[in-house]
Amino acid sequence: LVERQARFVFRVAYARLRNVQDSEDVVQQIFLKLYRSGAWERITDERAFLARAGWRMAGRRRTAEPATQVDESIASAEMNPEQSAVAVDWERLVHRIIDSLPQALREPLVLSSINDMSSGQIADILEVPEGTVRRRLMRARQLLRQKLAALSGRNL
Fold it and tell me: What is the pTM of this model?
């Protein structure tokens, strides 16, 4: 179970916490709790159960303002240093814009985009109707496009 799902749980926690160390702690805590309680034997839908548990535990662990960390691995070996710097700057900008979205819009966007979850799965995690998730996703993407377009001076 840990080998199959640890990376997924990490992505769910990271989507909420935006901090690598805290997200790793959440992953460890979840699997320790499951092992100690024996609940892992009764799980019917691993992914849904772990997503909900990761989301909730990350929410409890969350500080007032989560730290944003950018994965600098986007700078590929095929890019020259200037292109790499621009790519890293762009990713930081996108993360700042996403972080500036209202929580109700940011959470479904991150779960959908980064964790590749369906609107149904997101609805289960956030405990809201699926239609609400879809509207929030649409609005979040619309705001993200508008903010990026305003900064880049183009219509995206």
Answer: 0.59
